[in-house]
Amino acid sequence: MPWLLSSALDHVSSSPSQRQCEQTSFSFYCAVRERLPAWLLEDMRCMEVFSWEDGRPRAFLPSDALLYALVHDHQDYARHLLDTFSVSALRALRCSFCSRRSSGAPHLRVAVRYDRVAVLSMMLAALQRADALTDHLDSCGGCSHVADAGKTAVQLAVELSRPNCLLLLLARGARPGALDAALQRLGSCEEAERSDAQRCLDILLLFLPEPATRWQLQDEPSRWQSLLGNRVFSWLSGLAPPPLLLQALRCLARSGPDQICMLPDFLQPQSWQ
Length: 273
What we know:
Blueprint: H1 6-11, H2 18-33, H3 38-48, E1 50-53, E2 56-59, H4 62-71, H5 75-85, H6 107-113, H7 117-129, H8 133-136, H9 153-159, H10 163-171, H11 179-188, H12 194-207, H13 221-228, H14 230-236, H15 244-255
Antiparallel strand pairs: 1-2
C-alpha cells in the first residue's frame, strides 16, 4: 500500500516490534487523514496495521480506526465501521500509560471535542439499534491520563459550547446535568462564543427536570437578566414560573425528546427569550 514504507513492510512479521507497530499506525493515520476510500482503509487495517499494547503487538481494532475517522471527519469510513461492526466499533480502549481500560468508550466525547455532529449522529443511531445507549451515553473517562477524564459527553458539550452535539445527546436520552457549568460558561465566555453558549443553556433547560433555584443569580441581577432574559432569569431565580412556550417545549422534550430536533426555527431554543 502507498502509505506503508517498503522497509516497514519487509520487517512486519507475525510479531512486529513496538516501533514497527507505531510506523504502521502512523501510516494508517495519514491514510485516514487523506480520506482514502473506506474499502481500501479496511484492507490496510486488517492486513498491515498493528497497535502495541501490554508489551506486545495486537491487531488494529475497528474502535481504534473509528477514532481516526472521528479526528479527520472521514464520514464514509465511520459509517462503514459502524455498519459492519456496530457497537464493537465503540469498544472502550486501554490507556497507553497505565493500561487501564476506561469505564466507557471515548468516541462520544471525541466526537463532541472535535464537533463531529454527523459522525456523532451515526454512533448514537448504532447504539440505539443495539439497545446499548444506556451503557454509553453517561459514561465518563475513568483514567486520569485520558483527556476529559471524569466528564460525560454532555458535560463536555456544555463546557465547549457544542449545541448541536448537546441536542443530539439529550434527544437520545443522556442525563441533562451541567446547568451550573452552562451558566458559568455563558457568564464567562467571549462575545464571539456567546451565541453557542446561550444555545447550549437553552437546550439544557428543555431537558432538565425542574431545576433548583439558583439564588446566586440574584447577586448580579442586571447582568444575568441581560444574559438570560427577564422571564428565564425570574424562573431560575425562583421568582416566577417558566415562560409558557418553554413549559410547552419542556413537556414535548419529556414525551418525545427526538421531536425537539424537528421543530421549525421559530420554535427552536432561544425563541422564548
